[in-house]
Design goal:
single chain, mainly alpha, disordered N terminus
Amino acid sequence: MPAVDKREQPEREHGSPSRAFTSKSAAGLIVGLALIALFAVVRVLAPSTPEVFGLPNAARDFATLSISVVVESLPFVFLGIVLSIAVQVWLPEGMLLRRLPRSPVLRRLVLSLLGMLLPVCECGNVPLARGLVVKGLTVAESMTFLFAAPILNPVTIVTTAQAFGWDNGILASRVLGGFFIANLVGWIYSRHPRPGELLTARFQETCSLADHHDGDAGRVRRSVQMFSQETRAMMPALFVGAGMAGLIQVAVSREVLVALGSNPVWSVLALMLLAFVVAICSNVDAFFILSFGATFMPGGIVAFLVFGPMIDVKMLALMRTTFTAKTLLQLSLLVALCAAVLGLAVNYGH
């Protein structure tokens, strides 16, 4: 009886009122995009003098940094949502799962290389990973993909190669280190006795709904509804994450971070903190950190390039739509420890 109740309740919630649900989501999306456009217009038209609108420099910096994170991330979030819908709705049933190896270790190895085919940064991989779980992947497999794909995608590899070449093994350390850490995380969480507890209740409900779509609903209609639903879940998280990134960057002095760059240990920790704070896209983060190359040791650069695409303030906000707070805390500590060890190994190995 409880199982029947659980199935019927979502139908009542998302069946006949789906039009209102979609309209509400679309209205929220329009309002959000309008706010972004308004901020962008204000930023472009505003003179460079700090007296504009009476805003102090800190407030102007906060607005600029927050908007830049949103503008940088938004295309990839939408691309990830579109890919997620393609996987869930348009990919033939079982096509992906049938082609994956049966061995759990080999499945995770293949999934960690899936990013080679998907030039999407970490923001877009969150909705795509959600779609893969809905489609039937385990939580551990989705984590492996989520952490490996931003580093092992072709755009990230090319930009890192252009920025650093083969100097100090930064490129190889980033690619191999990201691959190893993603598979280590996947292996650890594959041993969790109750993986469903790693997910939020709301996302578990989304997975349950996906199992009971009737065949009469057209794929186009389902795609529109899913786009609205995923957008409604992702946009608030993106705005919150961008706001946190902007606030922390204003509050934390970058000069303090630079002063720590020549120490083998502090250079790693400082750049991991910087990666967490700036929340920059993995496709362009190599060029961002290149300007710090003369100040910080290579291990710090590697730690920045590995830790940032996996864990930062924006990613935590996005991943909170899927994983519980306890899971995110564990993941953050585990990835931070691995990235720090990798950075220290590079520093002391040179």
